[in-house]
Amino acid sequence: MSRLFSCANPDDREAGITIAAESVKDGGLVVLPTDTLYGLGVDAFNNEAVSKLLATKRRGPDMPVPVLVGSWSTIRGLVREYSTYTRLLVEAFWPGGLSIVVPQAPSLPWNLGNTQGTVMLRMPLHPVAISLLQKTGPMAVSSANISGEPPATNIAAAQAQLGEAVDVYLDGGECPVGTPSTIVDVSTGQVRILREGAVPRERIAAALSLQPDQIG
């Protein structure tokens, strides 16, 4: 049976984060709040759990699962190279609504889907998400919805779609941003926006000392 914790109360929040972290380490599915949308997450290095996440969302490995981290420093162990573009984007927008596609470190034992040697990383701007990530380490996290259905901006919407497939729900209230993150791909050495969302193109260009039309 799923367990629900309201994070509005400090004691319930601490208990919920602790139990959610234990569930993640045991291969369970957790729904957590972020600044943009609610996420469905598992241990990024537990390939069986990642497969369960994809099955729960009813989608295949052709749409790889992003990874959330709880600190700037975590990214350095996950990437093949920490490029200038990556550093500037991290410093300008993390924690926040920007996901960055980078070349992944070749030795990582995870299987996030058909990544073609890359990984999408983000540090969310939400205290519950950060607290959980600091206990679990990197988590594979996708939006908390069935593929093709509207993403959840509150816990009720996530529960309505995912039900008892989830082990722990952390209720952090309505997501403050409520729109998906912007996705920027710097894996080839060029800058491409794959999805414009919470962070506009103009702010990305300014952070990289580029003109907006220099970004693909």
From TrEMBL:
GO molecular function: ATP binding; double-stranded RNA binding; L-threonylcarbamoyladenylate synthase; tRNA binding
EC number: 2.7.7.87
Residues of the YrdC-like domain: 14-199
Annotated catalysed reactions: L-threonine + hydrogencarbonate + ATP = L-threonylcarbamoyladenylate + diphosphate + H2O
Family matches, as InterPro entries: DHBP_synth_RibB-like_a/b_dom, Sua5-like_dom, TC-AMP_synthase_SUA5
Segment forming the signal sequence: none
Domain of life of the native organism: Bacteria
UniProt cross-references to PROSITE patterns, sorted A to Z: YRDC
GO cellular component, one term: cytoplasm
Predominant place of localization: cytoplasm
Keywords: ATP-binding, Cytoplasm, Nucleotide-binding, Nucleotidyltransferase, Transferase, tRNA processing
Gene Ontology biological-process annotations: regulation of translational fidelity; tRNA processing
A Pfam short name: Sua5_yciO_yrdC
Location in the cell: Cytoplasm
Family membership: Belongs to the SUA5 family.
Record-given protein name: L-threonylcarbamoyladenylate synthase
Source organism of the structure: Corynebacterium choanae
Chain's gene name: ywlC
